[in-house]
Amino acid sequence: MPDKNFYITTSIAYANAAPHMGHAYEAFLADAIARYKRMEGFDVFFLTGTDEHGVKISRAAERGGLGPQAFVDKNAKEFADFYASLGVSYNEFIRTSDKEWHWPGANALWKKLSDAGDIYKSKYVGLYCIGCESFITPKDLTEGLCPNHNTAPEKIEEENWFFRLSKYAEQVKALIQNDELRIVPETRKHEILSLFNEAVPDISFSRPEGIIPWGVPVPGDAGQVMYVWCDALANYISALGYGSGDEEKFSKFWPADVHVIGKDILRFHALFWPAMLLSAGLSLPREILVHGFITSEGKKMSKSIGNIIDPKEYIEKHGQNALRGYFARDISPFEDGDFTEAKFLESYNANLANGLGNLVSRVVKMAADYFGGDIKHHPEIGAPLKRRFETASGTEDVDGSPLPFVVSSEILPKYREHMDNYEIHKAAETVWGLMKRMDGYVTDYEPYRLIKTDKDKTEAVLWNLLYGIHHVAIMLYPMMPDASDKIREIVGAKILENGEPESFAVKPVSSPLFPRK
Ligand code: MSP
């Protein structure tokens, strides 16, 4: 039997502030994939959560005047509430301050690395960027500042536990090269492979407890806490019960099918994490999907530029469908994508209000007005309907392609191919392509005119259109689950045993699905 389990994760967001557009996009992307896989019959486990340790969080907690636990409790709740408002269908929300699940997992993993002889004590002298939560070297700096955060790194000189990353570099490189650990897209694969052009050093894997008291204590050394990335990466297995005694979920779902991450944390996921797993004798994830950054007017969103767009505000004002629709249609998962209010509103009006919303309301209105909402399966369906063309010498009837045929032979296979390749934007384009065909279909058959002369044929035309809308709604489910549910409810397909719609009991729409803005 083929393995029909599918384990997908997002990265875990730092719980030091409210969720931003980047978090919203990543959660959307992973959710769209998770929902698609469920639709395809997979038993999906979708994990998200919050990263709650490290210097950044302990300092932010101090500034906020709360103890670190109260501080992360508050922020973790904000993330969970936010994901709910975005319609993110995660199965588990892991928190790294969770002592019941996460800590035993992180401890068990540390012990494995230690038993393998890959953990040793040494002195670290160097630089640390708190924004990145990463040890960095002078050559990573631009004019003395971290290029990602524009801040000066801290100088550190301390005794730490080290992990023998160097020992696994060649092996990780080979696994990435031959796609046993697939990095998507290709450009990111090349980027990570270029890291191996230089010698990969061992890395410091702990910090003195006296300096950062907030973290997971190193097993057997209460004077040190784990380096935040060592602790955080373990979430992908601790959430499955690894190290907690009940490893049923772990054996069912590990290795992960795909870790969804942003481009700035590739090195941690495609180098540190595989090396840790190799050292512990665990299987490697199959894929790492690396998305780009959401920018605003082409610039990184930042407080100093003042171009931060708050996703919570957008959901409150425009709803989850509008935001998810923009992410799906207008942003390629593999590149940076721009978000401005003007672009968002333009896309909303063109594609949701005028496109999808208008198509649904026109067809639904005709079905209600002409047939009281009941559109029966029609004998002409399946055979091409004749459609009338104006020609120079008068009119001519020619065969039009029936929508069910177009959907099954052309649209669905293309849609699946794109979704399987995580090309959500292209899958969306395919769905909008079908809508365009349907608009053309209405223009060709003019059901609003046809009803005066041929009621039977009008019913067949509307059946075809409802068939198309039903499938549009299904294909949109991963991207806009709420809109999909609403449209399927309105269209009211009666489904046959083979999964195909037979008849439709259309419900009138009281307010527009996507009011113009
Ligand atoms: N805590 C770490 C991840 C640990 S995973 C074991 C972290 N957290 S983060 O909050 O800084 O970032 C969370 C995710 O958001 C990352 O995948 C990151 O790349 C992504 N993004 C952060 N800013 C972003 C944009 N502006 N646009 C898109 N995604 C971006 O890193």
Average pLDDT rating: 93
Low-pLDDT residue spans: none
Shape: elongated
Approximately how much beta-strand content do the residues carry? 15-25%
Question: Termini separation (Å)?
Answer: 50 Å
Bound molecules: 5'-O-[(L-methionyl)-sulphamoyl]adenosine
CATH topology of the domain at 341-505: Isoleucyl-tRNA Synthetase, Domain 1
SS summary, helix count? 18
Amount of helix: 40-55%
Named CATH architecture of the domain at 341-505: Orthogonal Bundle
What is the rounded Rg?
Answer: 27 Å
Written description of the protein model:
The protein is an alpha/beta fold and 517 residues long. It has a domain at 341-505: Isoleucyl-tRNA Synthetase, Domain 1, CATH 1.10.730. Helices cover 46% and strands 19% of the residues. The protein has 18 helices and 22 strands. It has helices spanning 21-39, 55-64, 68-85, 102-115, 169-177, 186-194, 228-233, 235-238, 248-253, 266-280, 311-318, 320-330, 341-371, 403-420, 424-445, 447-450, 455-476, 481-491; strands at 5-10, 13-14, 43-51, 92-95, 119-129, 134-136, 154-163, 182-184, 203-204, 206-208, 217-218, 221-226, 258-262, 287-291, 294-296, 299-300, 337-338, 374-375, 386-391, 394-399, 493-495, 501-505. The strands form six sheets. Strands 1, 2, 3, 4, 8, 13 and 14 form a seven-stranded parallel sheet that branches. A hairpin with a 2-residue loop joins strand 15 and strand 16. The model has no long low-confidence stretch (mean pLDDT 93). 5'-O-[(L-methionyl)-sulphamoyl]adenosine (MSP) is lined by residues 11-14, 22-23, 25-26, 51, 232-233, 235, 261-262, 264-265, 293-294, 301.
